[in-house]
User: Fold these one by one.
Assistant:
Number 1:
Amino acid sequence: MTRLVPLIVVLLGFGIAACGGDDDDDGSAPTKAEFAKDADKICQDTQKEIEKIGQGASSPDELGSALDKVIAASKNAASKLTDLERPDGAAGDTATKFAEGFESELNDQLIPALEKLKKAIQDKDAQAAQAAAADLQKLESTKSDKYARELGATACVGTA
């Protein structure tokens, strides 16, 4: 199981960045650049939080707990992202696709893959853990990543 620890630490920091933003509210919609800046700030903060979560975890229970914390942090970030004020026009449409896409990918793909990994770790099933890791790697480049790139929110793009 100790051979899986470095893999888990990498996975904990893997592409789970999400976004949110400032409360600057002068009554006008943010520009595309302002949205990207706000999104990047929360993505960076969330990424730092997630990277710290797995530090020192070595037992299956500790790794399972760390994965639960990653899921919670990711859900919190997705909530902040969906609450982020969107720009007007085409950039706003892209921002909506990005925010809603991230939340959907998180709930429909990433969380189930993390839960599968957690179960494999707790069951001390190295083969199942490797399969779960492979499932996670398939999620490295997503539609929400595409929209994040279009917006210029590069800190919100998973590692591809």
Number 2:
Amino acid sequence: MPRRLCCGDSTTEVYPQPREHGFSTRASSGVYSSPMSAGKAAEKHESPDQPAPDDTRGWVARVFTWIEDVVYIGLSVMLAASALALLGHTANSFVRELLQGSLPVAIVALLDRLLLVLMIVELLYTVQVSFREHALVPEPFLIVGLVAATRRILVLTAEFPELQDKGEQAVRIAMTELGVLTLMILALVASLRLLRRRDRDAVAKKD
């Protein structure tokens, strides 16, 4: 039950609260004040001076995003320079072999360099997508693996006459490697088909 305290012309009602909060008073005018509400008001008053955790996380995330962009730009520049340099060297070798009439002999080596340029271009595309969307796309990595496996098969095929002179053990190892590379190519092609089918299904669902 509230207690009425009379002081002069005003009357104040005192309500009992738990011991840890003491008593709260309410004047006859109808205004009520409690220690808990006063503490919340003090916290609201002090909160602008303290940085919010979400703001700190956002600032740290922006810093790491900026560092990631700088790394992507550096990788793009080096990959582009490497691809251009290798392409120029391959073109120079192609013209030289063509003028000397030894192009059929050097065609496998030239094709190997062109496939290496293609691998670098695919890596450059992957970096470009990662820089633009800040997400890794699996399809370019599968294409790079497919090109690398094809490149290794071409090298082994070109070296096969020399392997026959080295003995039966070298030929057996080369044949095993060719079988593994063939299985790898089949797995990569199947993965690419599944990814593209998934993308088509996702587009169809959106439409």
